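Researcher: We're teaching a course module on how sequence relates to structure. For the next exercise, students receive a sequence and then see the predicted structure as tokens, so they can try to spot secondary structure elements on their own. Here is the exercise chain.
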Amino acid sequence: MWKKYNPNPRGNEYAGDCVIRAITKATGQSWESVFAGLSLEGYYSGDWGNSNGVWDTYLRKKGFRRYILPNTCPYCYTIADFARDYPIGTYILGTGKHAVTVVDGNYYDSWNSGEEMPIYYYTKEL
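Model: And here is the predicted structure for the students to work with:
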């Protein structure tokens, strides 16, 4: 089920900060802390903080691991489906152009992104 979530300090829903929002929900960090961490990681790699490679490195350093979703039905498996299939745990899903967090079967985003199709997900290693 979709739960509205927008930790953007200005309440901006169209800031292009989906990666920051997703990471804040999954880690409990503040929006400002994640923004600064991704910016620094981007600086080190010479890329933007929200590029896939930068936030991948950032999450891996925090103990997350990425998993690829099977390509058996690339146009029919949605974020909402993933949330139903994973009723326990915390996951950050990537679609290639968007990121959203699923926690215990609910997906958290500033808009209802449930019909978007995830390609991969991250979860924290125990």
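Model: If you want an answer key for the exercise: The chain has a mean pLDDT of 94. Residues 31-45 form the longest helix (15 residues).
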